[in-house]
Specification:
mainly beta, 10 Kd Chaperonin, Protein Cpn10, Chain O, 6-stranded antiparallel beta sheet, two-stranded antiparallel sheet, 0% helix, 47% strand
């Protein structure tokens, strides 16, 4: 992929899962999720590397489509841990 985030930003892919209600309705959890895979990091990101699975404080950022796939660009401050 020919894309690099700037500064302290991360290009992430949300770990997509489904949550089922008691009534059997499947809910996509993209906005509810707190886990993502790091695809690319900006030059100011020091503690996180590509391929890390991260836990997010909140999913806030720019939604982008690159090479036909959906990603988010977030700031490093939204990451609260690495698995």
């Amino acid at each position: 992929m020919n894309f690099t985030p700037l500064g302290n930003k991360l290009l992430i892919e949300i770990k997509k899962t489904e949550k089922k209600t008691d009534g059997g309705i499947l809910l996509p959890t993209e906005r509810l999720t707190k886990e993502a895979v790091v695809i690319k990091t900006g030059p100011e990101v020091l503690d996180i590397v590509e391929g890390d699975v991260i836990m997010l404080d909140k999913l806030e950022g720019a939604e982008v489509k690159l090479e036909g796939k959906d990603y988010y660009i977030i700031i490093e401050d939204n990451v609260i841990g690495v698995y």
